[in-house]
Amino acid sequence: MVKARNLGYPRVGAHRELKRAVEAYWKGESSVDALQATAKEIRKTNWQTQQNAGIDIIPSNDFSFYDHVLDTIALVGAVPARYQFKGGNVGLDTYFAMARGAQTQGADVTAMEMTKWFDTNYHYIVPEYSSSTAFAVSSTKIVDEYNEAKALGIQTVPTLVGPVTLLLLGKTHEAGFKPINLLAKLVPVYVQVLEQLKQAGAEWVQLDEPYLVMDGDDATRKAFTDAYKQIAAVAGLKVLVATYFDNLGDNLATAVSLPVAGLHIDCVRAPEQLDHVLAAFPADKILSVGVVDGRNIWKNNFDRSLALINKAIAKLGKERVFVAPSCSLLHTPVDLDNETKLDAELKQWLAFAKQKLSEVAILAKAANQGEDAVAAELDANRKAHAARSASPRIHKQDVKQRLAAVTDNMKKRMSSYGDRREKQQQTITLPLFPTTTIGSFPQTADVRKARADFKAGRISAADYEAFLEKETISCIRYQEEADIDVLVHGEFERNDMVEYFGEQLGGFTFTENGWVQSYGSRCVKPPVIFGDVYRENPMTIRWINFAQAQTKRIMKGMLTGPVTILQWSFVRDDQPRSETCYQIGLAIRDEVVDLEKAGIKIIQIDEAALREGLPLRRSNWKTYLDWAVDSFRLTASGVKDETQIHTHMCYSEFNDIIEAVANMDADVISIETSRSQMELLDAFVNFKYPNEIGPGVYDIHSPRVPTQEEMEQLLRKALEVLTPAQLWVNPDCGLKTRGWKEVKPALEGMVHAAKKLRQELANKAAA
């Protein structure tokens, strides 16, 4: 019989229970026992939810306190030396220190680097390797959680990041060394873990190898082959290799020939690969067909999915086919049933993680028993899709006509950067190494309470606005006292950098509890783009006018760019993403023009997700970059030369797309560089980036406060690549998630570091 399986389930809890428990532990407000109790209850609920939904093959070890890659780093003992790990099991405090850094009386260590998980908005902790890295089993988590489920009467499939992907995800600062060279040292540790799982009673294990959908080379393919020859030696344990997010492409022959019991492929992102896989699939394996979208929230099209499933069955037989989501459901909200206020028409088009489990089970039942066995479910599914397709709320002819009228000139600034810079220097007077922040300031408990009280009707709109005005003024006064050169208003009126704009744009809707993990305890609630996008009214003018009136310093207008709004939303799947992105671009363009009319001289349009949206296969890059860059330029090019356009990108690798970044033609770009110790600036060594750059000197994703000397050192490293006239000084990202007690000393140190460099330059010039 066809079996229904799942690859992973959201770990935060239906109401973000894990977030609150972890943050309480970090603050010292609860014990480790309380944290573990919450985690245990979430795992129990998740396993039982999957069991009750009819899932035959349920994962374990998909839970994590912070990140599943960090869990795997701990499992194999790849703890960097600065954390002074002495062997044995990695403790929880060491684990969190690797994720967030630690600054106590007994320790002062930086966090490990963090970046995006392939082309998602999920952030993972980047492994650090050197030729001397040693591995040893250093965690019992994977076995403990298997046994925990087993005690509940649930036989699970332990899942973890595969050895080749774990190495390829990592970085090294050792010249001439490649992390993949550690494979022979790493695989025996995996074999030891698998032996432990077999002894505990596990029948299957899932090893995630998403690098099999990346552009491969012979050395990488050999690494997969070598690794799995050793893993196959664990007799009596079935291994399924999971791939997702794209097609196997040139790695297909390697993937299907691995000596494992099963292979999972993503037939949502790459349905075309099914024919190629079936043609090459050997007779000794099971194929897991991912047909339910693990990354979006639209209802599955049962007819389309059944066509793929039946094609696999026709070739392999029912006993060799699993039905599954395309990837882990980590990337979707937990339960649509928790949405009590969502528009009824829109709600019938959606499916969250819990509902996707039911979809997988229904599809498996249809495959096993025939469509008559699920006739009612198929009928309801067809009606929902027909209703969505015919809804007049989706299509706006005036939006389509405006987009059709866009010309190439609308995607270009009036003059070249050099000419713009001369004009901007006449109207925007700033010192060398100008200081600024990325936008948001701490969203304190008082700010969050006021927003919640306003939404619940406990305070009036007037009282809420008065509160926001007070917070904004206080933030501005602090920035003046700290002597920051270019100010921001703090964004206290904004819940989220995408949600805030989506709430004011046509074509968007929102959930109450559609939370998705972004990193660690940080959850986001992505907007849902269901129709054509347009701006109904100005979105930021009221608050920027108020803020600018409070100071004589330059106030920076803050917007989120079209690519980032697209990437960080659940996007409609009935038209090309490029078309939706251009629609958003036109809406933000209107806001940029209005900010200029309001007298705002500097406007920042954040494109934190530009790199994130890059296709995994290089052959698809140009098409994406063309429309992504054009969407940004469409947004930014409606203003005069004198208006300075900034953009911001965080936790992204730019080396291979530096020309596209330059083609965005922003006057100033700020980027994350502190965790990577300015490593990202390597992209600018050979490519002489002409515009101005603000490499982040303060890692805001860690509670650790950097010293002034550390920031000076980073700035000096930046000056090895950039000229003084190019260099801005700023944090890595917005300060929303930090507390004032961390932000104030960090920003004051940042300003003093900039001033010290100015003085050194002046002294050098005078000499």
Fold and architecture overview:
By secondary structure, the protein is of the alpha/beta class. It is 42% helix and 13% strand. It contains 27 helices and 25 strands. The strands form seven sheets. The chain has an eight-stranded parallel β-sheet with strand order 1-14-13-12-11-10-8-2. α7 (183-200) packs parallel to α8 and α17 (445-455) runs antiparallel to α18 (461-482). The chain is globular and about 75 Å long. The N and C termini lie far apart (83 Å). The mean pLDDT is 95.
Question: pLDDT under 50 segments (min length 5)?
Answer: none
Q: Can you give the helix content as a percent range?
A: 40-55%
Quote the beta fraction. Answer: 5-15%
Number of helices: 27
What is the residue-mean pLDDT, rounded to a whole number?
A: 95
Sum up the overall morphology in one term: globular
Q: Tally of extended strands?
A: 25
Strand order of the largest sheet: 1-14-13-12-11-10-8-2
Summing up helix and strand content along with how strands pair, one would put the structural category as: alpha/beta
Cα-to-Cα separation, first versus last residue: 83 Å
Largest sheet: 8 strands, parallel
Please give the radius of gyration in angstroms.
Answer: 26 Å
